[in-house]
């Protein structure tokens, strides 16, 4: 995951791990994977979201909580959220 996000920071684009039928809460763990990388992305001027709100605003309810993840440049994520809101 770190290498994929690093490539996204260098080259642009969106890193996403959306919910699926098999993993409706996502597969990535909030405390170990999503929150630390989201902090770096936001400090670099990007956005990181669950699709419903910022990752860093999610209050963990359990230690191994999983969440969907979308991260990238502010412009790209705002455009993505526009399309997700249409669903």
TrEMBL record:
Q: Which domain of life is it from?
A: Eukaryota
Q: PANTHER family this protein is in?
A: FRUCTOSE-1,6-BISPHOSPHATASE-RELATED, FRUCTOSE-BISPHOSPHATASE
* Pathway(s) this gene product operates in, as recorded in its UniProt entry: Carbohydrate biosynthesis
Instruction: Give me the Gene Ontology terms describing cellular component.
Output: cytosol
Q: Does the keyword Transmembrane helix apply?
A: no
From the broadest rank down, the organism's phylogenetic lineage runs: Eukaryota, Metazoa, Ecdysozoa, Nematoda, Chromadorea
**Species per Swiss-Prot/TrEMBL record:** Teladorsagia circumcincta
User: What is the name attached to this protein's record?
Assistant: D-fructose-1,6-bisphosphate 1-phosphohydrolase
Q: Which residues form the Fructose-1-6-bisphosphatase class 1 C-terminal domain?
A: 1-84
Question: What one GO molecular function would you report for this record?
Answer: metal ion binding
């Amino acid at each position: 995951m770190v290498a994929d996000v690093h490539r996204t920071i260098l080259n642009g684009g969106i890193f996403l791990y959306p919910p699926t039928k098999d993993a409706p809460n996502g597969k990535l763990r909030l405390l170990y994977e999503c929150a630390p990388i989201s902090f770096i992305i936001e400090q670099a001027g990007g956005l990181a979201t669950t699709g419903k709100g910022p990752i860093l605003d999610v209050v963990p309810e359990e230690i191994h909580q999983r969440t969907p993840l979308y991260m990238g440049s502010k412009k790209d994520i705002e455009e993505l959220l526009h399309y997700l809101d249409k669903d």
